[in-house]
Design a protein that fits this description.
Keywords: Membrane, Transmembrane, Transmembrane helix. With about 375 residues, this protein is an all-alpha fold. The protein contains 13 helices and no strands. It is elongated.
């Protein structure tokens, strides 16, 4: 029955090596079933542990461990897969017992050399195993700077957005805050920056899906919520003021944003309509939109259209990204912000808190 051991060992090695290549080497956003299982299992455990806690802050502290645990579990799973595969192959090609086969496989894989048998037929396997262990560890070490470089670029823009809108981010408040301080025209630069960031996120988060689990340093920040907020602000800006100077930049940002979300959705298997109708179904209601239009109007934003006139255009933009954005916000356990969908934990959507106006008032006469 040693041939069964050999076939099983070869299959385990192929699956393990395939997982390593799909996650670390091939830049095509292939992913692997192993990483998806590890992510779901770790998320389930952390959510169960944090379930008795009250408040989003406490839950966020637990969920911050999701990405590091998944990264370590990936490495150990790959090493365990290599050990199992080589152990089965050595048992098949030699007369060694199960214990001695796995002992020699471990000795070779981790280049310790404490177990060696005088069987020339195992030399090739010993050499390949000795090269495999350090190679997988080296790939993982080289993988981390790439991950954290993409993470830092993402979080830099999310942090900068905090200067324009309080956390958690909300699109109408972004427009309202700029109207209050008279910087609506400066939104063009923001849209241009987020157009590039959306393209960067779409590229990095599809090639390295584990980045989706990396949380922001502050509990009320979230790249998913921030991206939805900037896209909502751009869609409202275009719909309410179609002749504004920022319209071209806002259009490009929206296109880049929902293209990135669709690329990510394909990798993590979120269903979506690639060509939705402009009047397609939305979770967001017209009443909520009308309240948001009144909110930005009170802040000093001068719309060219009413809520009724601008709703079809806004709806036509939002239908491209709402379902994917909501699904990502839910799967990443993002902060429950306005206009970002439901979560798997109880909690009402949090509105951004506007800073108190501390400008000096003119003296009373």
């Amino acid at each position: 029955m040693r041939w069964i051991s050999g076939v099983a060992g070869l299959a385990v090695l192929m699956i393990t090596v395939g997982s390593v290549l799909r996650n670390l080497v091939v830049p095509r956003g292939l992913g692997s079933a192993l990483v998806r299982v590890l992510w779901r299992l770790t998320r389930w455990v952390l959510r169960r542990v944090s379930a008795p806690l009250r408040g989003y802050d406490a839950r966020d502290r637990f969920l911050a461990w999701l990405a590091p645990i998944v990264l370590l579990a990936m490495l150990w799973s790959w090493l365990a897969g290599l050990l199992t595969g080589y152990g089965l192959l050595m048992h098949a090609f030699s007369g060694l017992s199960w214990a001695d086969s796995f002992r020699e496989a471990g000795s070779s894989l981790f280049t310790l050399g404490f177990a060696s048998n005088a069987r020339s037929r195992l030399n090739a396997l010993d050499f390949v195993a000795a090269a495999s262990g350090p190679l997988v560890i080296a790939l993982q070490i080289a993988y981390l700077p790439t991950l954290y470089g993409a993470y830092n670029r993402r979080e830099l823009e999310v942090t900068l957005l905090g200067a324009r809108v309080s956390q958690p981010a909300w699109g109408p408040e972004l427009l309202a805050r700029q109207a209050l301080v008279g910087t609506v025209d400066e939104l063009q630069g923001l849209y241009e920056n987020w157009e590039r960031l959306a393209a960067d996120v779409g590229e990095t988060h599809t090639n390295y899906p584990v980045l989706l689990s990396f949380r922001s340093p502050r509990p009320y920040r979230s790249w998913v919520v921030a991206l939805i907020a900037v896209m909502d602000a751009a869609a409202m800006h275009i719909s309410l003021a179609p002749t504004a100077a920022t319209v071209p930049a806002a259009r490009l940002m929206l296109r880049s944003g929902f293209t990135a979300l669709r690329d990510i959705a394909r990798v993590v298997h979120i269903p979506f309509d690639p060509d939705p109708r402009p009047d397609g179904p939305l979770r967001l209601t017209f009443e909520e939109y009308a309240e948001a239009v009144a909110h930005v109007r009170r802040a000093g934003f001068a719309p060219e259209r009413s809520a009724e006139e601008s709703w079809p255009d806004f709806r036509g933009w939002r239908v491209n990204y709402e379902s994917i954005g909501y699904a990502l916000a839910r799967s990443t356990d993002a902060v429950p912000a306005l206009w970002s969908g439901d979560r798997d934990f109880p909690g009402t959507p949090l509105a951004p808190r506007r800073p108190t106006d501390r400008r000096p008032q003119p003296p009373a006469r």
